[in-house]
Amino acid sequence: MSAGRLLALRTAVPPTLVPQQSAFDERYREMFETVPQAEEIFRGSGVTSRHMAWDPRTAYRDGYPPIKARMEAWQEHFLAMGRQTVGGVLDAAGPGARERVGSFVVASCTGYAGPTPEIVLAKEFGLRQDLRRTFIGHMGCYAAFNVLKTALDALAARPGELVLAGCGEVCSVHQRPEFTAEQAVVNALFGDAGAMMLLGGADDAAADSDTDGQGPVFLGTHTETHPDTLEAMSWHIEDTAFRMTLSPYVPFYLAENIEPFVKRLLAPHGLDTGDVQHWGVHPGGPKIIDFVGEKLALTPGQLGPSRTVLAENGNCSSATILLILERILRESRPEPGEHAVLMAFGPGLTMESALVRF
Asked: Which superkingdom does the taxonomy of this entry point to (predicted)?
């Protein structure tokens, strides 16, 4: 796989900020009154606030909307976040970037519409008529890595072009009338966000000023699927909404496999875990961060970006890992030559990762 340079990265969230305690007091306390551990679940989620297109304190007062209304809301808010992020990365890249965009890859697992939203955005931003487009649906929290791999393949085939690549998730439109501990966990964790990258070849000179004129390079990716845990996590369309299941054993499955998984990502580049300064661990929940951090002997500082994103945004499905990468770039400010490992997990169970050099 050819390397690709990150020329610009922008993120967006819906305008409504929902404090976790307020959401529990005003909505979920009554909703999960038959679940004795519900308050403990919300308090232990690691989430303090989330941005949500549908505020759970008000959106479900009159019942649970049908799937049509949910898909309309998904499309509306996906496009709103897409306008912010696509416009942001194109502006950051400067004159001439728009004409060089030859591929556009987006992922979302929280909705569907045709024409798919990247077609609408491509029209609005005046992108080329011969633009190659890919919409990746329903792959879950690790879908950003499938976006990245598709983008890197496009750059390998057409190294002179640029690629728009991103995600948009509107998880808040999928609250369901199901009052179990498992669904309390889901309702305690998930938020909404979008993110967009502009990628070029590793030697591309254009870059976002956020990275001091030299955007980080994606050196490679690694994927593993463990079909023996196929039922541990799922995401299905039902009559009223999409329904997620999440086994409490997922953190244990991941902890058992994370060390050899990371070694297989790093070994082709002559690196080991001790050579990596920055880590982006998808916060499927606080236990996943805890277990992965313990197994890889990561420091609190290295886990900080993942914990902060979980606290301030919740788990935003596929967009989350790009929120974490943005925070690493903005707050950790890696030195040239340092490395980062990004990872996310989802249905399959599937483990995805990428190696970045700053």
From this structure: Bacteria
